[in-house]
Design a protein that fits this description.
Helix content is 21%, strand content 31%. It is of the alpha+beta class. The chain has two domains: 79 residues, 2-Layer Sandwich (D-amino Acid Aminotransferase, Chain A, domain 1), CATH 3.30.470.10; 121 residues, Alpha-Beta Barrel (D-amino Acid Aminotransferase, Chain A, domain 2), CATH 3.20.10.10. It has an eight-stranded mixed beta sheet with strand order 7-6-5-12-11-8-9-10. A four-stranded antiparallel beta sheet has the order 2-1-3-4.
Length: 214
Amino acid sequence: MESPLCQDVPAGTRLIETFRFVPGAGVARLHLHLARLKHSAQALGFAFSETDVLRAVEALEATTDLRCRLTLGAAGDVEITTAEMPAAATKPWVCRIHPDRLSSEDQLLQHKTTRRAYYDAARAELPEGVQEWLFLNERGELCEGTITNLVLTMDDGVRLTPPVASGCLPGVYRQSLIEAGALREAVLREADLRAAEALHLTNALRGEIPAVVQ
């Protein structure tokens, strides 16, 4: 087991899993959400009961698709809040490179937590007509968006995504593509972004979103 990072985790921090609940079908890739939640709980020294998490998920009921936000506290307590699914993107998202840099040394970037003030502030300052910021780290390597991982399709058809070590969250949808052999990790830079044949943004809630970079 990894050494717990509790001493670096602000009090009141909760782990997050965001997913789509579909009536009659449940939650896609649930096993990957559970695996990531368990891994982060162990790394941060949080209590974790898969039984408690599954019980909360199995209690979900709806007649339409829901956006679900499950959080886990340090004591192992589980909460789920729900909302209507956001409207699907009807055209590619426009992205820009954020002027600030992430630190690849920040281990908490590898865990989805409620410590999101930086990302929330960045989203609040998105210019009109821009749907996502893309971040670089201190070495100029591509990391992630505020709510997405990124996937580049290169001119040879290979699909690449930044490694966790560059400073990004191991997204569940991203992980499903890696396990399916449809995506591999590679250190990427802005030049790769500009040279790519296609850019997609991914997360568990929306799947893949076509995108363009300004």
